[in-house]
């Protein structure tokens, strides 16, 4: 049994589906992707659940439009922030 | 490279050192411990970092008295909440 932050799952899948999968990131190196995730997650409320109740709760969260639109809003901000000042080493 | 919520690390070690290690929980079954963690984490600001910068940042966090006292305050509230209405099955 462990605790899981549902918001982290939503950010992960939205980043994959709406950005990486569509080639919408200026740079998708591991450093930039993790920095985008960290910035977005630090601007979103945590939703920790303990795993036995996780599956049902996670499903309910995935269809919660408000949290999803919050996640997309914060991802857009984070992607813009990282794109304008990436921490990766150029050409790496 | 992955993102880590520093607050989760602090809650984990404070729960172990200040509660479980000192026998201060009414019940320390996995269900109660995870519920206490989830409740505490949902009342604390996330501090996500990407792991390459994690070690140094995590150390700085561990000696940040304000976040530590916030963690202890929320753990006390969460332990009280779970102790008064545990979700485990009695005698399990």
UniProtKB/TrEMBL annotation, chains A, B:
Pfam families: ComFB. It comes from the Bacteria. InterPro entries: ComFB. This is Late competence development ComFB family protein. It comes from Alicyclobacillus mengziensis.
């Amino acid at each position: 049994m462990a605790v899981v932050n549902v918001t982290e799952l939503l950010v992960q899948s939205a980043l994959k589906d709406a950005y990486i999968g569509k080639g919408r990131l200026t740079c998708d190196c591991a450093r930039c992707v993790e920095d985008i995730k960290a910035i977005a997650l630090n601007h979103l409320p945590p939703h920790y659940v303990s795993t036995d109740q996780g599956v049902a709760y996670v499903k309910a969260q995935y269809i919660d439009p408000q949290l999803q639109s919050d996640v997309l809003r914060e991802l857009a901000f984070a992607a813009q922030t990282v794109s304008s000042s990436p921490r990766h080493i150029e050409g790496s």
